[in-house]
Every structure is written in C-alpha cells, then in structure tokens.
Write a structure and sequence with these properties.
Layout (H helix, E strand, L loop, with lengths): L3 E2 L2 H21 L5 E7 L3 H17 L2 E7 L5 H12 L6 E4 L9 H7 L11 H9 L7 H12 L8 E5 L6 H9 L8 E5 L6 H5 L4 E4 L17 E4 L3 E4 L7 E4 L4 H4 L5 E2 L6 H23 L1
Parallel strand pairs: 1-11, 2-3, 2-4, 5-6, 5-7, 7-8, 8-11
Antiparallel strand pairs: 9-10
C-alpha cells in the first residue's frame, strides 16, 4: 500500500490563514508587516521565486517592497540599499535573493542585513542563536520541513533521522533544529553527504529520511525500510520533450518506487516548496510583532 502524501500546499494554506489573522491584528495596531526583496540580475528561476513570494505576501496582507536591480550594480551600492532598508521602519524583513553576480561577496551582503530583519535566517547571529537553542529567525526551508512533520503528527522525540545533504541552507540547520531539547526536536540525527561510506546502511535504519542532496534518485526504495517517513527537499529539472516547457521537476527521491514502502512521503512539486515561502512570511510577521511590542 502506497504511503500517505504529505501535502505541503495544504499545510502551507492552513498556516497562511493563521498568519492572515495575526496580520489583521497588527494592522488594527497601526502596523503593516513589510518585506523588502532585493533581486539582482535576470536569473529566470530567481524571478519566478520572487514573483511567488510577492503573491504570497499579498495573500496574507504583508506589504511587499520589491527592488529589482541590474546585475551591474556594485557591491557598495547594494550594501547601501540594504542599509536603507535596515533603517526603514516600514520594513520588518529583508531578503536578498541568491545567487548574486560573481563580483559581489555574498557573505558581506548577508552580514549587512540587520539580524532583527534577517527573515531568511542566515545571519551568523541568528544561526548562533539557533544552535544555542535561543529564539531566533530560523532558516525557511528547514523550518518548513519541521512544521510539515509536526502538522503530519510525525513523532520527532526519539526518532532516528537521517539527513542526506549538509548544505548551510538545509542540511546543517535542519540537523540543529531536530536535535534541540524542545517539542520540535529531541530526535537522534545523522547527517550524510557525498563522502559518506555505505549511505544505505544509514538510511535503512532511519525512521525519517530527509533528502536534500540536489541530485535525482539519491534515495531509492532499497535504501529505506518499510514505514519510513520520507521528506524530499530536492528540486531538479529533468528534460522531458512531452511537456510544453520541455522539462519536468523531480526531487532527490525515486518517488514512484519509494512511496510503496514509505508510510508518508512528500511529492515534488507540492511538498516542501510551498512551506519555504510560508516560513518566510511567518518570520516577517514575527519580526513585525516584535517591532510592535517595542513601540
């Protein structure tokens, strides 16, 4: 019997309805949450992602401050733009869409964003707070994964979790979240990667497998035990001439075969993706509520 689909769209919709209520309450207090998005250059994938964020902001009532600039912008000009947003009381969150042109130092840009407006959760201060188990803005994709598991009534306490992927965006922060002494953690976590020997020995003992390697078919049916919960973070383009756009999206998991063994599994698309944007909105509302409490 095929595993139950974890519907990221449905979970995201439910969470966004809750955010609408919080935004409405803030507006009654004279505060409209504001998210500034800075997009440098003409990367098609980045433009598509930013448009989705704009629509999501509109849906929950967040003010979207969109800034699209030429790829030739200097690093200093970009840093000055960020500083303007840091000082703008209408802006509660700042997101600089990555990747950036080669002549711009991404680290310098991330450091320039005020930690109090770092709704992507990538500033070293927020990362440090996360590792220490203190309240902070959590990186959106891994936070979205945790929320998906909680909303699906997956038991995290005592669970054996294997994460395949060690990126700064997903693998590392997700491992830190899941080991925290908290209702959203208390799991035993193994992080695997391209240098892991006998990967299947790790995945086969896991209660929860999270694939975030960025490569199709990284996790196959023979690598998991029956009843495993499988979360697929990967998004990969595969050529497909039968599709009008010439490609289709797949994850890092061999979905059709793995779903026959998994107890629960996320699809691609429609799984983790909608949660990433939802957690960005969540962080922006959290920032606005914090601002409101101080004024």
């Amino acid at each position: 019997m095929a595993g139950k689909l974890i519907d990221g769209k449905a979970i995201a919709k439910s969470m966004r309805e809750q955010l609408k209520s919080r935004v409405a309450k803030l507006k009654k207090q004279g505060v409209t949450p504001g998210l500034a998005v800075i997009l440098v250059g003409d990367d098609p994938a980045s433009h598509s992602y930013v448009r989705a964020k704009e629509r999501a902001c509109e849906n929950v009532g967040i003010y979207s401050d969109d800034n699209r600039v030429d790829a030739g912008i200097t690093q200093q000009e970009l840093l000055e733009m960020i500083e303007d947003k840091n000082n703008d009381p209408k802006i509660n969150g700042i997101l600089v869409q990555l990747p950036l042109p080669e002549h711009i130092d991404e680290t310098a840009v991330l450091l320039a964003i005020s930690p109090e407006k770092d709704v992507d959760g990538f500033h070293p201060i927020n990362i440090g707070k996360m590792v220490a188990g203190k309240k902070s803005f959590l990186p959106c994709t891994p936070h979205g994964v945790v929320q998906m598991l909680l909303h699906s009534d997956v038991t995290l306490e005592g669970a054996d979790v294997v994460i395949v992927g060690r990126s700064n965006i997903v693998g590392k922060p997700l491992a830190n979240m899941l080991i925290q002494k908290a209702p959203t953690g208390n799991a035993t976590v193994t992080v695997c990667h391209t240098r892991t020997k006998k990967l299947s020995e790790h995945t086969h003992r896991a209660d929860i497998v999270i694939a975030a390697a960025g490569k199709p078919n990284t996790v196959t049916a023979d690598m998991i035990k029956s009843g495993t919960v499988v979360i697929d973070v990967g998004v990969n383009r595969i050529d497909d001439t039968s599709r009008e756009r010439g490609y289709r999206l797949v994850g890092d998991v061999d979905f059709e075969k793995v779903k026959e063994k998994a107890s629960m599994i996320t699809p691609v698309p429609g799984g983790v993706g909608p949660m990433t944007i939802t957690m960005l909105l969540y962080n922006t509302v959290e920032s606005a509520e914090s601002f409101s409490a101080k004024t």
